[in-house]
Amino acid sequence: MNLKLLIYRARVRGVPVYCCFLLLLYILYKQIFHPKLKHADCVPQHLQQYVKFNEKFMWEPCELQSAEISKLASTIELLNYERTVFQTQKYGIVTSKTNMLVVQVHRDVERLQYLIVSLAQVRDVESVLLVFSHSYYDDRINKLVSGITFCRFMQIFYPYSLQLYPNKFPGIDPDDCVSTAGRTKRFCSSRDGRLTEHKHHWWWKANFIFNNLDWSDTFKGTVVFLQEDDYVLPDLLYMLRYMTRSQAYLPGLHLLSFGRPRAKDLDFDVLSVSSWHPPFDKGLAFNKSLWHKISAVSSYYCLYDDLSWSYSLLNAFRKFNEGHVDMVATQMPRVVSTSTFPSGRAAMQQIALWLVGARMFPSNVKAVMLYSSTGRVNSGVKPPPRGNGGWGDLRDHLLCLDPLMSTTTSNTNDMSATTYSQTTTKAADYITVAQHKMNMSIADLRNMNFK
Asked: At which positions is Mn(2+) bound (predicted)?
């Protein structure tokens, strides 16, 4: 039906011509400036191979038998030992200057696939190494990751997961107050292994990346930490270069942050300088120099009674000489959390609408530091004097502090690091050591040199 016929019928029904004209303008405005983005529009054709799970996907309950757990543990140990980097023939070998994007993965594969789609659209992504650190082993997740062709990637696996320890520490211990049976006991530990795993996994992953890869002893690049429910913008690495450059002009900047709560009218070309604190933990990035300083005060991470790795890290930073760590952050986030959306698909559609007309890849970037009449704003942000709880079990402290936590294989490259071989010291042997330490007196425990 042509436009003239539509106008004729409208006039016959008594609709003024100017109303038809306004309606036509509105339709054109919606089509040009605010297009209705469909799933196919959000995901380019060449990237739709990564979208394999719909919004209704659910994991079926699966309990592994003892023999299956032993076999899986051996598989994970072998994969962590091999540390195979894929796509090196296409993009070259990894060097000590290669930047890394490290994704912590559990089981939210529907959101993970959209993170992969967003990573594929990052400019210069072929220059980085993409690392997936899993706390759950499943062939479907591994197959999704193995299909990546746009950059180098590798997969590592957290060796103390609930999947490998379903009914004992460091998983859900039946003697804990919160157990799989839901029992409540007196004089029991209030820990919940389903919650403590995330903090343990983050610490193990960081140790593995900075201490146990083939190039760790000479590593000079930057590591960007991501979660499976993140979504990254195309100019992430473009802004990383500007942020790294700002560290040379503003001494004392050790942290980079690409994520923050989204708000309206934020500038794409502005970097803010302030003391780091949550919620700037999305897209957190730093190098090995800062990691050495963090390791030196690791007890303030491992003993802080809080399930959050970010607040535990903030507690460790307060023991630095400055009492805090300065960061440079993008005012407009380049890492957006999809956890507040019903699904990864819904998040991607909304983010695509946000980016219509966005001024990414700014040619000039400004770094600002806020001051008030009383001095610099956000100088020396302090964590709560006490954590939010959930991390008071001595076994969690010992597992976090023990050198076994840092690796499952011996490190043949960094001879200065203190490492142990999982091939000679089994996880069960470690638990025995932990139980022995738990029977020590309080005075002896206080005198122990954990680092």
From this structure: 229
Is position 265 annotated in a ligand binding site?
Answer: no
CA distances, 245 to each of 205, 256, 301, 364 (Å): 26, 11, 29, 13
Q: Is the pLDDT of residue 175 over 70?
A: yes
What residues are paired with 336 via a beta bridge? Answer: 231
The yes-or-no verdict on residue 92 having pLDDT over 70 is yes
Q: What number is the average pLDDT over the span 193-202?
A: 95
Query: Whole-model pTM?
Result: 0.80
Provide the pLDDT for residue 172.
86
| pLDDT for residue 451 is more than 90 | no
Domains, the chain, in order of start with CATH, read 3-34 (no CATH), 45-447 (3.90.550.10)
Determine the distance from the C-alpha atom of residue 361 to the mean position of all C-alpha atoms in its chain, rounded to a whole number. Answer: 23
User: What per-residue confidence (pLDDT) applies to 441?
Assistant: 44
